[in-house]
Amino acid sequence: MKDRVQKIWPEIEWIKDEELKSKVTDCWVYAIENSVLSAEDLEKIPFSLLIDDCDITFMNHKRTCVRLSVDIAKTMGENFGSEINMDILIAGAILIDVGKLIEYEIVDGKLGTCRAGKLLRHPFSGVAIADRFGLPVDVQHIIAYHSKEGDLGKRTIESIIVHHADFVSFEPFQDAKRIKV
Ligand SMILES: [Fe+2]
Questions:
Q1: 94-143, pLDDT tens digit by residue?
Q2: For residue 80, how far is its CA from the centre of ligand 1 (angstroms)?
Q3: Cystine design at 15: which of 1, 5, 21, 106 (Cβ 3.0–4.6 Å)?
Q4: What's the alpha-carbon Rg for the chain, to the nearest Å?
Q5: 174, pLDDT greater than 80
């Protein structure tokens, strides 16, 4: 399974710390092994079940979010001198939606969200997975605070960047958020 995770997530190689890289891989292996979906399915399913006729895949969306996070962090570092831990940022960006893998269910051939996924959304289940494999608290924080649930608290700089990278690659596809002129 590790090789299939490495195939869908080449960005794991961007993490310099070998132990962190290995733990991030372990999280994805565990999530896929406990999911109704396969690694290959993630390259086919829409990234959101909330958007009608969504033709952007889960993996395209998640990999774009990681790339955007890195681009923003590099620009902020160059232009503002911001101190950003790139390994933490990349690991967090790769893991923000790992909990989604155990949110899904397939009923009558249709992909949906299971009861556990409705009661405990993926920021929470994602932290549980990350904690199981000993990911640092800074990475768990990015997972926990990447979504709307995190708006009630304060975020680290890495968490702010990943949160916005995630939303900037989501809101333009939501009719409720975008003005079309
Ligand atoms: Fe998410």
A1: 999 999 999 999 998 888 899 999 999 999 999 999 999 999 999 999 99
A2: 28
A3: 21
A4: 16
A5: no
pLDDT single digits (tens) 26-85: 999 999 999 999 999 999 988 887 777 788 899 999 999 999 999 999 999 999 999 999
Domain boundaries, the chain: 2-175
The answer to whether the CB of 172 falls within 8 A of the CB of 166 is: no
Q: How many CB atoms lie within 10 A of CB 15?
A: 21
Answering whether pTM is above 0.85, one says yes
CB atoms within 5 A of ion ligand 1 belong to: 97
User: Separation of 62 CA from ligand 1 center, angstroms?
Assistant: 9
Query: What is the 167 CA–ligand 1 centroid distance (Å)?
Result: 9
CB-CB contact of 104 with 122 (8 Å): no
Cα–ligand 1 centroid distance for 143 (angstroms): 8
State the distance from the centre of ligand 1 to the C-alpha of 107, rounded, in angstroms.
22
Sequence-distant contacts of 162-168: CB under 8 A, at least 24 apart: 162/65, 162/69, 162/89, 162/92, 162/93, 162/96, 164/72, 165/65, 165/66, 165/68, 165/69, 165/72, 165/93, 166/65, 166/96, 168/68
Architecture of domain 2-175: Orthogonal Bundle (1.10)
